Amino acid sequence: MVPGQRFDKPGKSPYMDMPLVPKYADEADAGGGVRIDPARTQNVGMRVVEARRGLLSNELQATGVIDFNQRDVAIVQAKTGGIVQRVYGRAPGDVVAAGAPLADLLVPEWGGAQAEFLAVRRTGDAALVQAARQRLHLLGMPPSLIAEIERSGRPRTVVTVSTPTGGTIKDLGVRAGMTVPAGQTLAEINGLSTVWLDAAVPEAMAGRIRVGGPAQATLAAYPGETFTGRVTQILPQVAGESRTLTARVELPNRGGRLRPGMFATVDLGGGAKTALLVPSEAVIRTGRRVLVMLALEGGRYKPAEVRIGDSTNGQTEILAGLSEGEKVVASGQFLIDSEASLAGMEARPVDAAPASGPSRASDAANHSGHAAPASALHETVGRIEQVTSKSVTLSHEAVPTLGWPAMTMSFRLEDPALVRGLKPGDRVRFAFDQPAAGPTVRRISPLGARP
């Protein structure tokens, strides 16, 4: 009820009529962890899984909208001033082919230049004819009109303005009877042979996109069909509201079936990679760091800090802090997290994870049939406080190899014969290690008589 309060000896709690619960140092040290009542773990539906190597899909799906290819735009301008005599019934949104007429333009100033050209042509002077023809070019007459004047021998002051490319008319600024100056924009044509798919990609996945990479899009308008293109650009700005960036995919538009404004789902990844995986639900993000809850032997649990990578289909990649074969809690881990917080337990650092899952010492034990130490031995001296067949309680001096201060704590005994002949009060020198089950005495010998 008052988890922050500690007492140095047994007795009844000053806050309630109940005996104090022993709290040993090994329950919160680097190898101990916290112990949870099995009944509580069953009630919360706790599930434990092993960290395993497997294939992590590298697929990245995003949603986007079809847009015009802004690189395929043609601007139709008046090369000279004139009067619009006729329009051909075009309107914004119309789809036209290359060379489709837009309007007939009357250019009065062309009449005199064309008559002069025909007169010079009749003289037969090649140099003068070439000079007169060049003047017509400079006045803005297209080569086809000049060729027709030479062929017919008659001036022509009306020119038909047509589209240079096929596509849709995005803007049309010409009407019958209007006067247009030289350089005025008459129409804007956007090609439809290719379209853009602007896909919104979460900021966290930006590093997985590559310019030039393949992309496959599916649309609700054409179920069962896949449209293949490539990533042509990653726009430099991130949308502040949604924290997404735009990956621009260029798609061929055969038959003009892909229409700007259509909604699409695009797959920007491909293939898979081998990685150490845990269920994504096993990962706890605290804001400062990322944790998993290790499931140790003997019903003990301990937090471990990890560094994570990609997450796909409910699996998360572990880059550091966890080894293959280690068990983690996949559900109900918040109960353990709260218990560890109450106990003031420090999480295992990222760089303290074992190099591999099953230890070589464990393998040796399995082959020989005897238990083997799971880690290096740590040696110190102390005084026996209590002895049982399975444990010994020692008031020991500091342990330099672990950075422990002097304290009183209980140690496991794998072999009860180790303490045969020893009794409370004896000063001893002992060595222990820290397997998953807790600190275990491996050697112990008396130092002298009981004080």
Features of the shown structure:
single chain; 451 residues; mainly beta; conserved putative lor/sdh protein from methanococcus maripaludis s2 fold; OB fold (Dihydrolipoamide Acetyltransferase, E2P); 6 helices; 39% strand
- What do the pLDDT scores average to? 81
Class from helix and strand fractions? mainly beta
- CATH hierarchy class name of the domain at 31-58 and 273-358: Mainly Beta
Describe the largest sheet.
7 strands, antiparallel
Level of helix content? 10-25%
Number of strands: 28
CATH architectural name of the domain at 31-58 and 273-358: Beta Barrel
CATH fold category name of the domain at 31-58 and 273-358: conserved putative lor/sdh protein from methanococcus maripaludis s2 fold
Strand content: 35-45%
How many helices?
A: 6
Shape: rod-shaped
- Which residues sit in consecutive blocks of at least 5 with pLDDT less than 50? 357-374
Q: Your description of this structure?
A:
With 451 residues, this protein is mainly beta. Among the domains are: 31-58 and 273-358, conserved putative lor/sdh protein from methanococcus maripaludis s2 fold; 114-154, no CATH class; 366-446, OB fold (Dihydrolipoamide Acetyltransferase, E2P), CATH 2.40.50. It is 14% helix and 39% strand. The protein is built from six helices and 28 strands. It has helices at residues 38-43, 109-123, 126-138, 143-152, 333-342, 360-368; strands spanning 34-35, 47-50, 52-57, 61-68, 73-77, 82-87, 95-96, 101-106, 158-162, 167-172, 179-180, 185-190, 194-202, 214-219, 227-239, 244-252, 263-267, 272-279, 284-285, 290-295, 300-312, 315-320, 327-331, 378-387, 391-396, 407-413, 427-433, 440-446. Strands 1, 3, 18, 19, 20, 21 and 22 form a seven-stranded antiparallel sheet that branches. A six-stranded antiparallel beta barrel has the order 4-13-16-15-14-17. Strand 19 (284-285) and strand 20 (290-295) form a beta hairpin. Helix 2 packs antiparallel against helix 3 (126-138). The longest helix has 15 residues, at 109-123. The model is unreliable at 357-374 (pLDDT under 50).
